[in-house]
Amino acid sequence: MKINPRTITYVTAVAEEQSFSKAAERLYITQPSLSQHILNAEKEYGVQFFDRRSMPVRLTYAGERFLAIAKEMDQLDRQLSREMDDITCNLTGRIAVGVSSTRGSRFIPQLFSRFKSRYPGFELDLVEDSNAKQLEAVRNGRVDFAFTGYTQDDLYSHLIAEREIKLAVRRDLVNDLSPETGSVAMTSFSEYPFILLKKGRGIRNIADQLFSDNNINPQIAYETSNYNMALGMAREGLGCTFVIDHEIPLPDGLNAYSILDCKEKYQLYIVYRKDTYLSLPFQYFIQLAREMDQ
Protein backbone atom coordinates (compact mmCIF):
# COMPACT_ATOMS: atom_id res chain seq x y z
CA MET A 1 0.00 0.00 0.00
CA LYS A 2 1.53 3.29 -1.11
CA ILE A 3 1.46 6.09 1.45
CA ASN A 4 0.06 9.40 0.26
CA PRO A 5 2.64 12.10 1.16
CA ARG A 6 -0.20 14.50 1.85
CA THR A 7 -1.54 12.13 4.51
CA ILE A 8 1.82 12.27 6.32
CA THR A 9 1.80 16.07 6.15
CA TYR A 10 -1.79 16.35 7.40
CA VAL A 11 -1.45 13.82 10.24
CA THR A 12 1.84 15.43 11.33
CA ALA A 13 0.27 18.89 11.40
CA VAL A 14 -2.70 17.76 13.53
CA ALA A 15 -0.39 15.83 15.87
CA GLU A 16 1.90 18.84 16.36
CA GLU A 17 -0.87 21.42 16.70
CA GLN A 18 -3.11 19.05 18.73
CA SER A 19 -6.03 20.61 16.91
CA PHE A 20 -7.71 20.11 13.54
CA SER A 21 -8.58 23.80 13.21
CA LYS A 22 -5.05 25.03 14.00
CA ALA A 23 -3.56 22.41 11.67
CA ALA A 24 -5.88 23.57 8.87
CA GLU A 25 -4.74 27.17 9.38
CA ARG A 26 -1.10 26.09 9.25
CA LEU A 27 -1.70 24.12 6.06
CA TYR A 28 -3.82 26.88 4.44
CA ILE A 29 -6.74 24.54 3.81
CA THR A 30 -10.25 24.35 5.24
CA GLN A 31 -10.89 22.24 8.33
CA PRO A 32 -13.57 20.10 6.57
CA SER A 33 -11.08 19.25 3.80
CA LEU A 34 -8.44 18.26 6.35
CA SER A 35 -10.86 16.19 8.42
CA GLN A 36 -12.24 14.40 5.35
CA HIS A 37 -8.79 13.53 4.05
CA ILE A 38 -7.77 12.01 7.38
CA LEU A 39 -11.08 10.15 7.71
CA ASN A 40 -10.56 8.65 4.25
CA ALA A 41 -7.02 7.58 5.18
CA GLU A 42 -8.23 6.03 8.45
CA LYS A 43 -10.90 4.12 6.52
CA GLU A 44 -8.29 2.90 4.03
CA TYR A 45 -6.02 1.58 6.81
CA GLY A 46 -8.84 0.41 9.04
CA VAL A 47 -7.62 2.34 12.10
CA GLN A 48 -8.08 5.67 13.84
CA PHE A 49 -5.07 7.99 13.89
CA PHE A 50 -6.51 10.30 16.55
CA ASP A 51 -8.49 10.07 19.77
CA ARG A 52 -10.99 12.79 18.97
CA ARG A 53 -12.60 12.54 22.42
CA SER A 54 -9.56 14.00 24.13
CA MET A 55 -8.85 17.71 24.41
CA PRO A 56 -6.41 18.51 22.99
CA VAL A 57 -6.54 15.93 20.20
CA ARG A 58 -4.05 13.08 20.70
CA LEU A 59 -2.54 10.42 18.47
CA THR A 60 -3.69 6.86 19.05
CA TYR A 61 -1.10 4.08 19.16
CA ALA A 62 -1.93 3.36 15.51
CA GLY A 63 -1.40 7.03 14.68
CA GLU A 64 1.97 7.07 16.44
CA ARG A 65 3.16 3.99 14.54
CA PHE A 66 1.82 5.33 11.23
CA LEU A 67 3.79 8.58 11.62
CA ALA A 68 6.96 6.87 12.81
CA ILE A 69 7.06 4.40 9.90
CA ALA A 70 5.81 6.91 7.32
CA LYS A 71 8.55 9.41 8.26
CA GLU A 72 11.20 6.70 7.98
CA MET A 73 9.89 5.82 4.52
CA ASP A 74 9.76 9.50 3.56
CA GLN A 75 13.38 9.96 4.67
CA LEU A 76 14.47 6.94 2.63
CA ASP A 77 12.60 8.33 -0.37
CA ARG A 78 14.38 11.69 0.01
CA GLN A 79 17.73 9.93 0.34
CA LEU A 80 17.06 7.95 -2.84
CA SER A 81 16.11 11.15 -4.68
CA ARG A 82 19.29 12.88 -3.57
CA GLU A 83 21.49 9.98 -4.65
CA MET A 84 19.75 9.98 -8.04
CA ASP A 85 20.30 13.76 -8.19
CA ASP A 86 24.02 13.18 -7.70
CA ILE A 87 24.01 10.79 -10.63
CA THR A 88 22.20 13.30 -12.83
CA CYS A 89 24.62 16.16 -11.98
CA ASN A 90 22.46 17.70 -9.25
CA LEU A 91 20.55 19.94 -11.64
CA THR A 92 17.44 20.16 -9.49
CA GLY A 93 16.40 19.56 -5.90
CA ARG A 94 15.08 21.13 -2.74
CA ILE A 95 16.58 22.08 0.63
CA ALA A 96 14.37 23.13 3.54
CA VAL A 97 16.19 25.42 5.97
CA GLY A 98 15.07 26.32 9.49
CA VAL A 99 16.19 29.51 11.25
CA SER A 100 14.98 32.17 13.67
CA SER A 101 13.69 35.32 11.99
CA THR A 102 16.18 37.52 13.86
CA ARG A 103 19.35 35.62 13.03
CA GLY A 104 18.18 34.65 9.56
CA SER A 105 17.76 38.23 8.40
CA ARG A 106 21.48 38.80 8.89
CA PHE A 107 23.04 35.98 6.87
CA ILE A 108 20.40 33.90 5.06
CA PRO A 109 20.04 36.28 2.05
CA GLN A 110 23.76 36.12 1.27
CA LEU A 111 23.96 32.37 1.95
CA PHE A 112 21.01 31.62 -0.34
CA SER A 113 22.38 33.92 -3.06
CA ARG A 114 25.77 32.23 -3.08
CA PHE A 115 24.21 28.76 -3.12
CA LYS A 116 21.83 29.61 -5.97
CA SER A 117 24.69 30.96 -8.06
CA ARG A 118 26.08 27.42 -8.24
CA TYR A 119 22.80 25.47 -8.11
CA PRO A 120 20.17 27.68 -9.77
CA GLY A 121 17.78 24.76 -10.25
CA PHE A 122 17.52 24.07 -6.51
CA GLU A 123 14.62 25.32 -4.41
CA LEU A 124 15.47 26.74 -0.98
CA ASP A 125 12.53 26.75 1.44
CA LEU A 126 12.71 28.83 4.62
CA VAL A 127 11.02 27.80 7.88
CA GLU A 128 11.20 30.35 10.72
CA ASP A 129 10.66 29.25 14.32
CA SER A 130 12.26 28.96 17.76
CA ASN A 131 15.34 26.83 18.49
CA ALA A 132 13.38 24.05 20.16
CA LYS A 133 10.91 23.79 17.28
CA GLN A 134 13.72 23.90 14.73
CA LEU A 135 15.45 20.95 16.37
CA GLU A 136 12.19 19.01 16.33
CA ALA A 137 11.65 19.97 12.68
CA VAL A 138 15.07 18.48 11.87
CA ARG A 139 14.22 15.28 13.71
CA ASN A 140 10.88 14.78 11.97
CA GLY A 141 12.22 15.71 8.54
CA ARG A 142 10.33 18.98 8.03
CA VAL A 143 13.65 20.74 7.44
CA ASP A 144 16.96 19.40 6.17
CA PHE A 145 19.15 21.90 8.03
CA ALA A 146 18.47 24.28 10.89
CA PHE A 147 20.48 27.15 12.31
CA THR A 148 20.07 27.04 16.08
CA GLY A 149 21.60 28.51 19.21
CA TYR A 150 22.24 25.06 20.69
CA THR A 151 22.21 21.44 19.60
CA GLN A 152 21.61 17.96 21.01
CA ASP A 153 23.52 14.68 20.88
CA ASP A 154 21.13 12.83 18.58
CA LEU A 155 21.88 15.29 15.75
CA TYR A 156 24.97 16.21 13.76
CA SER A 157 26.05 19.83 14.14
CA HIS A 158 28.82 22.25 13.19
CA LEU A 159 29.61 25.36 15.21
CA ILE A 160 29.68 28.26 12.75
CA ALA A 161 29.69 31.35 15.00
CA GLU A 162 30.25 32.40 18.60
CA ARG A 163 29.30 35.78 20.04
CA GLU A 164 29.50 37.59 23.38
CA ILE A 165 26.27 38.18 25.29
CA LYS A 166 25.81 41.72 26.56
CA LEU A 167 23.27 43.55 28.70
CA ALA A 168 21.38 46.33 26.89
CA VAL A 169 20.03 49.14 29.07
CA ARG A 170 18.73 52.62 28.34
CA ARG A 171 21.54 55.08 28.92
CA ASP A 172 19.82 57.25 31.51
CA LEU A 173 18.97 54.22 33.67
CA VAL A 174 22.61 53.34 34.35
CA ASN A 175 24.01 56.77 35.19
CA ASP A 176 24.25 55.80 38.82
CA LEU A 177 26.37 52.77 37.94
CA SER A 178 28.95 54.75 35.91
CA PRO A 179 30.41 51.69 34.14
CA GLU A 180 33.61 53.36 32.97
CA THR A 181 35.08 50.10 31.66
CA GLY A 182 32.02 49.26 29.59
CA SER A 183 31.42 46.24 31.82
CA VAL A 184 28.82 45.66 34.52
CA ALA A 185 28.18 43.02 37.17
CA MET A 186 24.92 41.08 36.93
CA THR A 187 24.38 41.62 40.65
CA SER A 188 24.13 45.38 40.02
CA PHE A 189 20.91 44.66 38.13
CA SER A 190 19.27 42.30 40.62
CA GLU A 191 16.52 44.86 41.32
CA TYR A 192 16.00 45.91 37.68
CA PRO A 193 13.08 44.63 35.55
CA PHE A 194 14.07 42.38 32.65
CA ILE A 195 12.62 41.89 29.20
CA LEU A 196 13.39 38.32 28.14
CA LEU A 197 12.88 36.18 25.09
CA LYS A 198 10.54 33.24 25.67
CA LYS A 199 11.73 29.82 26.78
CA GLY A 200 13.27 27.76 23.99
CA ARG A 201 15.35 30.60 22.54
CA GLY A 202 19.12 30.21 22.77
CA ILE A 203 19.65 33.65 24.29
CA ARG A 204 16.98 32.90 26.94
CA ASN A 205 18.85 29.76 27.97
CA ILE A 206 21.96 31.87 28.51
CA ALA A 207 20.01 34.52 30.44
CA ASP A 208 18.57 31.88 32.77
CA GLN A 209 22.07 30.47 33.34
CA LEU A 210 23.40 33.95 34.19
CA PHE A 211 20.59 34.47 36.71
CA SER A 212 21.37 31.10 38.28
CA ASP A 213 25.14 31.72 38.40
CA ASN A 214 24.58 35.06 40.17
CA ASN A 215 21.77 33.88 42.48
CA ILE A 216 19.34 36.38 40.96
CA ASN A 217 15.60 35.86 41.01
CA PRO A 218 14.82 38.16 38.07
CA GLN A 219 11.92 40.57 37.94
CA ILE A 220 10.53 39.64 34.51
CA ALA A 221 8.59 42.62 33.19
CA TYR A 222 7.82 41.13 29.75
CA GLU A 223 8.51 38.02 27.71
CA THR A 224 8.49 38.08 23.91
CA SER A 225 9.46 35.78 21.05
CA ASN A 226 10.74 38.75 19.04
CA TYR A 227 14.33 39.96 19.54
CA ASN A 228 13.57 43.40 18.05
CA MET A 229 10.53 43.75 20.32
CA ALA A 230 12.76 43.19 23.36
CA LEU A 231 15.16 45.90 22.12
CA GLY A 232 12.29 48.32 21.52
CA MET A 233 10.93 47.79 25.02
CA ALA A 234 14.39 48.31 26.53
CA ARG A 235 14.75 51.51 24.52
CA GLU A 236 11.52 52.78 26.09
CA GLY A 237 12.91 52.12 29.57
CA LEU A 238 10.62 49.18 30.35
CA GLY A 239 13.55 47.07 31.50
CA CYS A 240 16.94 45.75 30.45
CA THR A 241 17.49 42.90 28.02
CA PHE A 242 20.23 40.65 26.67
CA VAL A 243 21.72 41.15 23.24
CA ILE A 244 24.12 39.28 20.99
CA ASP A 245 27.23 41.35 20.28
CA HIS A 246 27.37 42.67 16.68
CA GLU A 247 23.99 41.09 15.92
CA ILE A 248 22.07 44.16 14.79
CA PRO A 249 22.58 47.91 15.43
CA LEU A 250 21.15 48.97 18.80
CA PRO A 251 18.31 51.52 18.83
CA ASP A 252 19.29 55.05 19.81
CA GLY A 253 19.50 55.54 23.57
CA LEU A 254 20.54 51.98 24.38
CA ASN A 255 23.97 50.97 25.62
CA ALA A 256 25.28 47.41 25.54
CA TYR A 257 27.58 46.40 28.39
CA SER A 258 29.87 43.41 28.70
CA ILE A 259 28.96 41.26 31.70
CA LEU A 260 31.71 40.69 34.25
CA ASP A 261 32.74 37.06 34.78
CA CYS A 262 30.33 35.90 32.08
CA LYS A 263 31.57 32.64 30.58
CA GLU A 264 28.48 32.09 28.46
CA LYS A 265 28.66 32.69 24.70
CA TYR A 266 25.90 32.68 22.11
CA GLN A 267 26.76 29.88 19.72
CA LEU A 268 25.22 29.31 16.31
CA TYR A 269 25.14 25.79 14.84
CA ILE A 270 24.04 24.27 11.60
CA VAL A 271 22.21 21.08 12.57
CA TYR A 272 21.01 18.05 10.58
CA ARG A 273 19.97 14.43 11.08
CA LYS A 274 22.64 11.76 11.33
CA ASP A 275 20.97 9.68 8.61
CA THR A 276 20.88 12.59 6.13
CA TYR A 277 22.41 11.70 2.79
CA LEU A 278 24.78 14.56 2.00
CA SER A 279 24.58 15.00 -1.76
CA LEU A 280 27.01 17.39 -3.41
CA PRO A 281 24.62 20.36 -3.12
CA PHE A 282 24.02 19.53 0.55
CA GLN A 283 27.76 19.37 1.18
CA TYR A 284 28.20 22.72 -0.59
CA PHE A 285 25.43 24.29 1.51
CA ILE A 286 27.19 23.19 4.73
CA GLN A 287 30.51 24.46 3.39
CA LEU A 288 29.02 27.89 2.64
CA ALA A 289 27.37 28.05 6.06
CA ARG A 290 30.67 27.31 7.79
CA GLU A 291 32.43 29.98 5.73
CA MET A 292 29.87 32.70 6.46
CA ASP A 293 30.99 35.48 8.82
CA GLN A 294 28.00 35.40 11.16
**Can you tell me the residue ranges where pLDDT is under 50 for at least 5 consecutive residues?**
none
The total of beta strands comes to 12
Task: Determine the N-to-C terminus distance.
Answer: 46 Å
Task: Assign the structural class, choosing from mainly alpha, mainly beta, alpha/beta, alpha+beta, or little secondary structure.
Answer: alpha/beta
Largest sheet: 8 strands, mixed
Strand content: 15-25%
**How much helix is in the residues?**
40-55%
What's the structural blueprint in terms of helices and strands?
Layout: H1 5-17, H2 20-27, H3 31-45, E1 50-51, E2 58-59, H4 61-87, E3 93-99, H5 101-118, E4 122-128, H6 131-139, E5 145-148, E6 155-170, E7 183-184, E8 193-197, H7 202-213, E9 219-224, H8 227-235, E10 241-244, E11 254-259, E12 265-273, H9 280-291
Parallel strand pairs: 3-4, 3-5, 7-11, 8-9
Antiparallel strand pairs: 1-2, 5-12, 6-10, 6-11, 6-12
Helix pairs in contact: 1-2, 1-4, 2-3
Structure description:
This protein is α/β, with parallel strands linked by helices and 294 residues long. It has helices at 5-17, 20-27, 31-45, 61-87, 101-118, 131-139, 202-213, 227-235, 280-291; strands at residues 50-51, 58-59, 93-99, 122-128, 145-148, 155-170, 183-184, 193-197, 219-224, 241-244, 254-259, 265-273. β8, α7 and β9 form a beta-alpha-beta unit. α1 (5-17) packs across α2 (20-27). The relative contact order is 0.14. The model has no long low-confidence stretch (mean pLDDT 86).
